[in-house]
Design brief:
heterodimer; A: about 110 residues; mainly beta; four-stranded antiparallel sheet; 11 strands; B: about 110 residues; Immunoglobulin-like; about 0% helix
């Protein structure tokens, strides 16, 4: 399977714990995006990378959220000191920068904070 | 302020008939539009897209129409099949500003 993969698919954690999610993009794609989706809403953009450079991070929801893509391949999204309001589906997408670019999504990681 | 609006939360269509899903946008800088389909507990799957220089794009049973003057696009599915039952998201992008902007989605139910 050469699509976008995300791990874990599900995560249950207690409030105050830190969580980290991983995304592996389509191999030839140089852009990687993180989105969050809550019930009844469309995906909401969080941050994106071109290769290893994080080009936009102002939309990260708070300073508890951070993302990395150290070698320009996989990426991690970390949430520190989780809160119940962080419960959502976290989606990763990738694209190859070529003007009009289609973003392809992974299956998502569903986070439940108790 | 929602820049991409899907005003119908749900739509029911009989199998074999046409499904028409609508989307309106407010940002005139958007120049590329996409439709995604989403099943529960899965990520969005890309369906079809259209550039702002076109007014129609067709791919099999799926056709997207763009009316730039009205800032409106629609997705037509003909004929509709039960497997098409899912939530459909309209998304738009200003290619000078990378993130996709999504609508809230329309849940399509195709009844056999």
């Amino acid at each position: 399977d050469t699509g976008v993969s995300q791990n874990p698919r599900h995560k249950i954690t207690k409030r105050g714990q830190n969580v980290t999610f991983r995304c592996d993009p389509i191999s030839e794609h140089n852009r990687l995006y993180w989105y969050r989706q809550t019930l009844g809403q469309g995906p909401e953009f969080l941050t994106y990378f071109q290769n290893e450079a994080q080009l936009e991070k102002s939309r990260l929801l708070s300073d508890r959220f951070s993302a990395e893509r150290p070698k320009g391949s996989f990426s991690t999204l970390e949430i520190q000191r989780t809160e119940q309001g962080d419960s959502a589906m976290y989606l990763c997408a990738s694209s190859f920068r070529s003007g009009a670019e289609t973003q392809y999504f992974g299956p998502g990681t569903r986070l439940l904070v108790l | 302020d929602q820049q991409v609006k899907q005003n119908s939360p749900s739509l029911s269509v009989q199998e074999g008939r046409i499904s028409i899903l609508n989307c309106d946008y407010t940002n005139s800088m958007f120049d590329y539009f996409l439709w995604y389909k989403k099943y529960p507990a899965e990520g969005p799957t890309f369906l079809i897209s259209i550039s702002s220089i076109k007014d129609k794009n067709e791919d099999g049973r799926f056709t997207v129409f763009l009316n730039k003057s009205a800032k409106h696009l629609s997705l037509h599915i003909v004929p509709s099949q039960p497997g098409d039952s899912a939530v459909y998201f309209c998304a738009a992008i200003d290619s000078g500003n990378t993130p996709l902007v999504f609508g809230k989605g329309t849940r399509l139910s195709v009844i056999a």
